[in-house]
Design a protein that fits this description.
By secondary structure, this protein is mainly alpha-helical. The chain has one helix at residues 3-64. It starts with a helix and ends with a helix.
Length: 65
């Protein structure tokens, strides 16, 4: 086989798996960023709910006296 044929064969054989690997890498990174944003929002919501529960506890104590 000549050099151009070898190069063409390598590209046709390895091109698709490399392209798919790159696409999957990009997709996984995007999912990670999205997941990080979701977790941050959930953490904020949990903290807000915790503060409200503390306020309710104090209000119940005040009403019970």
């Amino acid at each position: 086989m000549s050099d151009p044929t070898i190069i063409e064969n390598l590209i046709s054989t390895l091109g698709f798996p490399i392209a798919v690997s790159c696409a999957l890498f990009w997709y996984i990174n995007k999912q990670g960023e999205s997941h990080k944003e979701e977790i941050t929002a959930l953490r904020e919501t949990i903290n807000e709910n915790t503060n409200i529960l503390h306020e309710l506890k104090e209000l119940i104590r005040a009403l019970a006296k």
